[in-house]
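User: When convenient, might I ask for sequence and structure tokens for a protein?

AI:
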Amino acid sequence: MINIPEMKVGIVAVSRDCFPESLSVNRRKALVDAYAAKYDSKDIYECPVCIVESEIHMVQALEDIKKAGCNALCVYLGNFGPEISETLLAKHFDGPKMFVAASEENIATLSSNRGDAYCGMLNASYNLKLRNIKAYIPEYPVGNAEECADMIHDFLPIARAVYALNNLKVISFGPRPLNFLACNAPIKPLYDLGVEIEENSELDLFESFNKHAGDERIPEVVKDMEAELGAGNKKPEVLEKLAQYELTLLDWVEAHKGYRKYVAIAGKCWPAFQTQFGFVPCYVNSRLTGRGIPVSCEVDIYGALSEFIGTVVSQDATTLLDINNTVPAELYNNDIKGKFNYTLNDTFMGFHCGNTSSKKLSFCEMKYQLIMARSLPIEVTNGTLEGDIVPGDITFYRLQSTADTKLRAYIAQGEVLPVATHSFGSIGVFAIPEMGRFYRHVLIEKNFPHHGAVAFGHYGKALYEVFKYLGVPVEDINFNQPKGMLYPTENPFC
């Protein structure tokens, strides 16, 4: 995977000057040793220059972790801690940060070497709020060395997402297709998140595509496509054009990302794309997404953003699917009922034309876009990658702006069932507990569009913390509530 940051967390221990500094020194060493014993020691850096007790120490520590290449910060309260200096450290560090605190090791420490970091964490959080500083504080942020090491490891995907968004450019091509207002949303909140947007005309893209005709790299890309598709290479006649388009997008990214480190693309695929380019871009979109450069369909900017967040959190390919159609009762009764603990209303089919990475399909074939071919010649609709999505755990989620520029999100964990879809496109039979209620009281009630991002695994815990860190109000981070936990709009008499 490319287009994903590598994180190095600088661990800076702090100490209140009236507490023994040795407490923080020894506890920091134990924390670093515990992390190295369980995880990759390259993830962390132990700041050796000082234990932060003053503002001068804060500056020294800040310079040291910057010099060491740290792009995330862990402020470690080895004891009560200096509430001003430690929060100034977080204020002046340009990157994601977290706070954790040490618990008391044993009875012997209570007589004279008690650290009181349990108390110090309260003052730290109070000072962070006073200074309007965003920081990640774990669900229970006080622990021994091994427990704090686990907290830092849990922080890594959150830090990756926050850091990546602050260095992201979303490149879009064209206005949304006619009669496709659903994914339209103001881009002002993206600037507030630190994301850059570059909006282009599809004419600019078409011009660049034409300039790539005869590119000497095309045969090599075609060869790679043939190897990926294998027996599923049912449309070999279109591969050269698809390779030309892939090179067009990759070159565009390199030429236009500017000072940004990471890129996501919101592309266009209809109504005129097929007739002018002579294919649909689904397969190319799937290939780039599989490498870590998400490409959303239908100029869905927030869809591309959501995919990117899932990609950096999971360090794996994601996809963007329509929350598309119900599972027929016949299919449910034959293949799901009695075999899986889901009701019919817990299930649905997630679908898109062919944008899901081949790595996330049980099988794949290059085909034509059936829906578009109802009104167009088949030969200009070639380019979809079709197959059933691999069974396993998934997280369905989306970050979205409302019309009045407020961010809201949803997260729902579930699975793709090992059930044949008997359908077309990149598609799977999804099951999410209490999906019927979630569909009505979140997706419909909160006006979310039909596009949802899919991460392959359960990443709800990390995504929830990412959205919180980004400033989404907790009441606007929606989830599939269990039975007995009513939504605000749910009729209690139903």
